[in-house]
Specification:
Distance between the termini: 12 Å
CATH architecture of the largest domain: Alpha-beta prism
Shape: globular
Radius of gyration: 21 Å
CATH superfamily of the largest domain: Enolpyruvate transferase domain
Number of strands: 25
CATH class of the largest domain: Alpha Beta
CATH topology of the largest domain: UDP-n-acetylglucosamine1-carboxyvinyl-transferase, Chain
Number of helices: 13
Bound molecules: shikimate-3-phosphate
Helix content: 25-40%
Strand content: 25-35%
Number of domains: 2
Largest sheet: 5 strands, mixed
Structural class: alpha/beta
């Protein structure tokens, strides 16, 4: 990395290509999904919740700002938080619009919390949030009794909500989404009766684990989740493990840059999130996983990755929710695998921070990848020598990080536009890249 060139809108980050090796170890920053939830659970529990290794990314800072506006005292120093919760009833009507920034998790989960509160709130975010569908949470929350409205018939931000007096429902999720599931669980905790939620496929279960950690109850039988209303939670300390979705960029970097050996420390190993490890192993990556024995409510461990000979694979079905956020970086990995990789059943990618089928295919094509979009995923042919060029994150943090790693194996320099988007989930990303090159 040679710093930024240009200025203003044309500012572009030059990333050095053709790396000879990556070596060293990294302590991966806190998990984004768990960091968001730690603030939310701390806010609705009774007592003082301490959170260590909190991720200070822009998304999680948006969650803190929103809960402060809802009257919750939150202290933050470096990576530690103290949240002074007073139960659901301690939340108060915000004086101004709640701004969720770029964070889909913040807005969707918060709508579930607000659905049970008898006051008015208005929510909005950035231009990416304005394109993301909210009907998936608004529809069931309205069925439970909340008033919700918004742009384009109620399904898009700005969204307004007036909650209170919820009744339990039985709801079959139409999409495999942890955000929708979690939103309904938060509403279910405040409803009259027992809410049941049926998942099509298992998605990340951090909300369920955290309810139990905070002394609450949630039942799970197969794909059916049941949550009793009227529960009060107790403050707990939360130790956030490293984010496997952030580690993923270095797992792939270690596998594709020549002569590399990287150790990633204290990475979350929740089985609902480890699809990338399974896929990389299937593709032939040299990975060793050392799971920690002290357990905790979220498993974690260290991962060693070395430069690997890779082969193509098919990624589909129930694997998709276990690696949904890793698909951009897996696409890059596939460009370095012999043969064809097919990713299907991943239409949800179209409604992420960007349409990630289009952004991955367009940006990797600019670097010479043989990749084509399909209706529900993409097809990648390898192994291809990538070339330099000018690419853009399109304001999507994971696209920005994927392209930065791609640069390492290009035969010419890469200029990355909108690199600042990476701060959403990994403010230390470029420092960590540099550390492995020293
Ligand atoms: C998240 C769930 C996933 C994921 C997102 C974080 C969460 O979204 O893509 O980055 O914290 O619950 P969906 O639930 O929409 O699939």
């Amino acid at each position: 990395m040679n710093g930024r060139i240009g200025s203003g809108f044309l500012e572009s980050l030059k990333i050095q290509a053709n790396l000879k090796r990556l070596q060293g170890s990294l302590r991966i920053p806190g998990d984004k999904s768990i960091s968001h939830r730690s603030v939310m659970f701390g806010a609705i529990a009774h007592g003082v919740t301490t959170v260590s290794n909190f991720l200070p990314g822009d998304d999680c800072l948006s969650t803190i700002a929103c809960f402060r506006q809802l009257g919750v005292k939150i202290e933050r120093n470096q990576k530690e938080l103290r949240i002074y919760g007073n139960g659901f009833a301690g939340l108060t009507e915000p004086g101004e619009m709640l701004d969720v920034g770029n964070s889909g998790t913040t807005i969707r989960l918060m709508l579930g919390i607000l659905a049970g509160r008898d006051f008015f709130a208005a929510l909005q975010g950035d231009s990416s949030i304005a394109r993301r569908p909210m009907t998936r949470v608004a529809k069931p929350l309205k069925e439970m009794g909340a008033f919700i409205d918004g742009r384009k018939g109620g399904g898009y931000t700005p969204i307004v909500i007036r909650g209170g007096h919820l009744k339990a429902i039985n709801y079959q999720l139409p999409v495999a989404s942890a955000q929708v599931k979690s939103s309904l669980i938060f509403a279910g905790l405040q409803a009259n009766g027992t809410t049941t939620i049926i998942e099509t496929e298992q998605t990340r279960d951090h909300t369920e684990r955290m309810i139990r950690h905070f002394g609450g109850e949630i039942e799970k039988r197969g794909t059916v989740i049941a949550v009793k209303g009227g529960q009060e939670l107790e403050a707990r300390d939360v130790q956030v493990p490293g984010d496997i979705s952030s580690a993923a960029f270095f797992l792939v970097a270690g596998a594709i840059v020549p002569n590399s050996e990287i150790i990633l420390e204290r990475v979350g190993l929740n089985p609902t999130r480890t699809g990338i490890l399974d896929v990389m192993k299937k593709m032939g990556a040299q990975l060793e996983i050392f799971e920690a024995e002290d357990g905790g409510f979220e498993p974690y461990g260290d991962i060693l990755v070395k430069t690997s000979e890779l082969k193509g694979t098919v990624i589909e079905g129930e694997m998709i929710p276990r690696l949904i956020d890793e698909i951009p970086i897996i696409a890059l990995l596939a460009t370095q695998a012999e043969g064809t990789t097919i990713i299907k059943d991943a239409q949800e990618l179209k409604v992420k921070e960007t349409n990630r089928i289009d952004t991955v295919v367009n940006e990797l094509s600019k670097l010479g990848a043989k990749i084509q979009a399909t209706e529900d995923g993409m097809i990648i042919h390898g192994k291809t020598q990538l070339s330099g060029g000018r690419v853009s994150s399109h304001g999507d943090h994971r696209i920005g990080m994927m392209l930065s790693i791609a640069a390492f194996i290009c035969d010419g320099d890469v200029f990355l536009d909108k690199s600042e988007a990476i701060d959403v989930s990994y403010p230390e990303f470029f420092d960590h890249l540099k550390k492995l090159q020293d």
